[in-house]
Structure formats: structure tokens, C-alpha cells
Automatic annotation (TrEMBL):
This is Cupin 4. Residues 1-29 are annotated as: Disordered. InterPro entries: JmjC_dom, NO66-like, ROXA-like_wH. Residues 135-263 form the JmjC domain. Gene3D superfamilies: 50S ribosomal protein L16 arginine hydroxylase, Chain A, Domain 2 (3.40.366.30), Cupin (2.60.120.650). The lineage of its organism: unclassified sequences, metagenomes, ecological metagenomes.
Amino acid sequence: MPKKPAQPRASNSQSAQPRPAKPRAHARPAAPALEVNASNGMPLGMPPSRFLTQYWQKHPLLIRGALAGWQVPITPEDLAGLACEETVLARIVHRERKRASWTLQPGPYSEATFTGLPERDWTLLVQDVDKWDAEVACLLDFVRFLPTWRIDDVMVSYATDGGGVGPHIDQYDVFLVQGIGRRRWSINTERNAPRALRPGTDLKLLAEFAPTHSFALEPGDVLYLPPDVPHDGVAEGACMTFSIGMRAPAESELLLDLAEHLAEQIPDTQRYSDPDLRPARARGLIDSAVLARVRAQLGPFAQRIKAGELALWFGRMITRYRSAALIAGNGQPASLEQVRAMLLSGRALLRHPFARFAWIEHGAEGASLFAAGHMVHCPRALAEALCANARIEPDDAVLRDGSALTALRDLLAVGCVQFARAPRKRA
Ligand code: SIN
Ligand code: CO
């Protein structure tokens, strides 16, 4: 007999106070099965709605036989031919087993490129093959349950034995369809798996990779990987893999595009205005009234931006705005000792004539000083002095503070201030 579901019961008896629930360890829902078999009419091995709820953007899934019987529409030779076209985006990655390293051989390629390749340990990857080959585009039918605008492309790779691009993570969801031959995929499903990159390589490879799972994919098998899962695919014999990649704009790209879109609708005549301006308390100061005007002028777009962030952005923006010259440092940042020595030798400091300066006060003593889009923290006295004077003498009291010297060193490095020529010796 089915049990009646337990109902919370109201009680009017004082002795029957509800007992506080025992604190329970916050249990994370167990990951669903990593491997399933596709079946007739269910290439995902489950209805798309279940795939989307349980796996999409959450967990990897290996679907055995998802595209069983699929006839691969292009040959490795077709792919190499495509990679020789100027407008096609292609890469060859070589693996050096002994050093466990991978190198990129950039295109353009010619027939000779392919005849000169070694027997093993390399892979050719060609992007956007669905745009060049209508039959490859048909593979996108596999993801017809996804919005079309979310799909990026079908990238096709041909790998010789041992070939692969090395352990890495992708920023996008991907369906890795095994077309020809066999490829071993190793993945790490741990949330806190190391994700630091190897230094000094064009390929964004992981510095450390310790797989938690490894499986060989045969033709027709599909491995779905959400973004940010460390993975590595190594060919076991020559093989071809078709990667259906998704696209998802970065938040920064969304914001930038929205800002541009909104900006296009604002007439040029609508500008920063300050009919309520009062005499300046100090030269170059960006005070709270300025920031309030900027915030009001930007409307709802700026309402959620913290005061400090708005101030930092405005200081950098307004000192960069409409600058007629590009200010560059000499590329050799001086040490504090060198700056000190130059001042002791009597060299004055000159503002770069094209550098605009402004500052924001922090309490009674501190300041953020902006110069041509750069920002340094410094004593208020230095900020005021640099905004008010194009030249500061080496013995000026504003230069005595240690943090003033640090700020000066940074401004010298970007070219916003320079040392004047050495004073002429008196005859
Ligand atoms: C491939 O080698 O075909 C796919 C590379 C990847 O994104 O892991
Ligand atoms: Co990848």
C-alpha cells in the first residue's frame, strides 16, 4: 500500500513544540552517471530535457553509440586540402612525447607541409568545417534541441597515433563526436582540479593534469564536456574527431556591446555638464560633486557601480580623453635609488606636456593620482603639486615622502613625468 505522504501537523499543545532540525552537512547532489548508451530514437541516451537538466553546463557525459552508423562525410585528405585554403582557420599541433610538450605549427599550409610531417604524434585541426561542407553541417542536427545561435561550429581534427592538443580546458560546451578510429579521452571532473596554465606556450595547456576518468571513444561515440573541464584526447592509431562547439559571449563582451549600443542612441550634444560648478578647492581635484554629476548623467547604467569603482574609471577616462599624443615611457623603469639619485643631483621633474593630471582625495593625506589614463597612489601634497605645476624642483618638500618617490618612479616609467636636463654648471 502506498504510504501517505507525511504532512506537517499544526499543534495547539504547548508541549508539542517543533524540534529544531538537526544541522546536516550540506550534501552536494551526486553526479549523474558519466556513461550511457544511446538507443533508437534517443541519441543522447535520454530525452533532451533530461540531458539539459542533469548534464548541460554541469557534468560530462559519454554517450556510447550516439551516432552509430554515421557515415563520416569527409576524408583526411579533404581536411588537409581545406587546411591549405588561405581563408580557412587551421592548426597543426605536434607532440613531443619525451618532453611531454606540444608545439603549434601555424599555417598557411601547402601540400609539402603534409608530405613532410612525421608518422605520428601530430594532429591537424580545422575550424568552421560546417561552413565549408554542407554534409558536415548536417552533423549539427545532433544538437537540434539547442538554440541555433548558441552553436559556434564543427571543428574537425585528424590525428596520427599519439596526436592530440595536450591537456587543456575550453570555455565552451563541446560535443566530441568520434568519426573515424579511436581516441582516448582523459578528463578530470573535480571542481577544484588545478587549472593553472603552462608558462611560455602559444597553446593554453594545463601545467598539471591528473585525470579522474579515461575512456576510449569508438566511431559513433560522443563525449559531451561542459566548459572548464580539464581534458586531453590522444589518438590511438589515426583518427578523426568532429567537435561541435558552442559559443557564449563573455560578460565583459556583453557589457561592452550593450554600452556601445546604448551610446549610439545618445546624441553628441548630450555632454558632461556642470552649470552648478563652484570655484575649485584644489587644481585637478575630482570631487564628490563631479562624481555625483557623472553618476546622474550615466543614468541607470551607473547606479549599481560602487563609488570607488566609478571614481577610478572616471579618473582614468578623463585623463586619457581626447589626448592628442601617445605618451610612452622609455621601457626601462628606474629603481627608487635611481630616482633618489637623480633628485639629489639637482634634476627637476617635468610633466609631459600632453599628459593630463587629475586626482581624488583619500582622507586628509592620501590621493589617487591619474595621469594619461594611469593611476598611482601618492600623498595628497604630490597630487596637488603635479596638478598645479608643470615643473617640480628636486628639493620640493612634496618629494620627501617615500611613497611620493614610488609614485614618481611609476609615472616616470609610463612617461607622464620626465627629469629635466642636468643643470648647467656655473662658470
Ligand atoms: C580534437 O583534438 O579534436 C579536439 C580538441 C579539444 O578541444 O579537446
Ligand atoms: Co578541448
